[in-house]
Structures are given as C-alpha cells and as structure tokens.
Amino acid sequence: MTGGGRGIGRAVAVRLSRAGYRVALTARSEPELRETAGRCPGETLVRPADVTSGAAVEELVASVERTWGGVDVLVANAGAGAAAPLAKTTDELWAAMLEVNLTAPFRCVRRVVPAMVERGWGRVVVVASVAAKQGEPYVCAYTASKHGVLGLVRSAAAELAATGVTVNAVCPGYVDTPMTDRTVADIAERTGRGPEAARAALAAKQPNGRLVTVDEVADAVWLCVTNAALNGQGVNVDGGGVQS
After folding, report:
1. How far, CA to CA in Å, does 222 sit from each of 67, 104, 109, 137?
2. Which CATH superfamily is domain 7-237 in?
3. In the chain, which residue ranges form alpha helices assigned H by DSSP?
C-alpha cells in the first residue's frame, strides 16, 4: 500500500495485517514505515519510495512480485493537499496536486491490474476524498485531482467488471490525521483563529459534528476488499455530509 507511514495508511495496514494479509508498505519516510510495520502482527515488507516517480512505482511492484509472487490488493493511499485562492493557484501547485493524487494512483493501478486479471482476482482501493464529489473554496487543484481519481476508479471498474478484479474509492471527509493537523495550522494562520477553533470548524462541516477516525476509514477499505459486488463506487465516510 502507498502512503503507509501514518494516519489512514497506518490504520489500513494494521487492519489488513490482522486479517492475515502480508502487507507491503511504501511512503517517503522509512522511520514512519518501520513504525507502521512494528504495529502489524503479520509479515510486512518496507520499501521507502516516492510514488510520484514512475520508475519508483515499477521497482516497488516488481519488488513485491519478487518477494511474494504478486499483488492481490492495492491500496493507493498516498496523497497531499494544498490550499490557495483560484487566482493564486500556480501552475506548480496545480501540477503537484495532480501528480500525487491522480497520476501516481493511475500508475500504480496500471502496473498491478494485468497480473490481477490473469489470476482472476484482485482488489484495488483508492483513498480519495469527499472532494471527489463536491467542491469547496480555495482547493481547486486538490478537488480537481480527487474528481479525476474517482473518474479513474469508475472507468477501470467498468472495464474490469467481468474479470474478478474490483476497483473502488473510499471518500473520507475530514479525518483526524497529521494531514488535517496541517490544514488546521493553515486555517489558523490564514484566519487568525486558534488551532482549537480551526479544528472545531472542520468538525462542524460534518453533520455528526466530529472528525472521522482513521479506523472508520480502514473499515470502509476493508469492505471494498471483502465485498465482490462492490465495484466502481466512491464510498463516502464523512458523517453524512455527502449523500449519494
């Protein structure tokens, strides 16, 4: 799985490991990956990499194939967020959001799917965002990338529907993770509000009035792995904010 060093990725890795899966972990930070591996009860493979590099994706998957024979489940969780007004969204910011949130998952899916189809079984789960379903101010690049990756999921699912391979997205709202901590810091800096007030504002965006937990997202990923009839879906995990 990509983005396995912390937050949602760590929770998903532990969930899969407890269920008996051998888990290959990648992210940029090896110490964080080692910490995740230490929390997994089963066998793990730690491979630090930058998945925005096509060569790194190729070597990563090839390493798993050499070690364990193939990839049964891909969880594409690596992602990043950045905020800016539309008129101040630079080409560099736009490109960076698309590269990590859309192109990197595309390369991972493209690389693992042929062998899954050949075996007649596979699961692909992309961790997207409710930003794949609706827009918010100041995050046009992030939102475009997440809308794009949901399109990738839907198209791939339609193409592979008869092969035994399913492709789904999990679309969380605001989750209690280090990424949200950075969002809180950005809001506090931009608005002058304290961190607690900024965090409360994010929680209030969800009808249940709180942040989503990483375990709740991991449960949704697990559903996509275990339910063969779930295909081409963007599963919302946001306390009821987006009803679809």
Report:
1. 24, 22, 18, 31
2. NAD(P)-binding Rossmann-like Domain (3.40.50.720)
3. 7-18, 30-39, 54-68, 91-98, 104-119, 140-160, 178-191, 195-204, 214-226
Distances (CA, A) of 108 to 77, 82, 121: 11, 22, 17
Catalytic residue numbers? 142
- How do residues 129-180 score in pLDDT, each as one tens digit? 999 999 999 999 999 999 999 999 999 999 999 999 999 999 999 998 887 8
Long-range contacts from 49-55, C-beta under 8 angstroms, 24+ separation: 51/2, 51/26, 51/78, 51/100, 51/104, 51/107, 51/108, 52/99, 52/100, 52/103, 52/104, 54/107
- Residue 85 tokens, joined: 């007004």
Residue 82, pLDDT > 80, answer yes
CA distance 185 to 8: 19
- Residues 224 and 237: their CA atoms lie apart, in Å, by 13
Residue with tokens 């090839």: 62
DSSP codes of every residue in 163-195: TTEEEEEEEE-SBSSHHHHHHHHHHHHHH---H
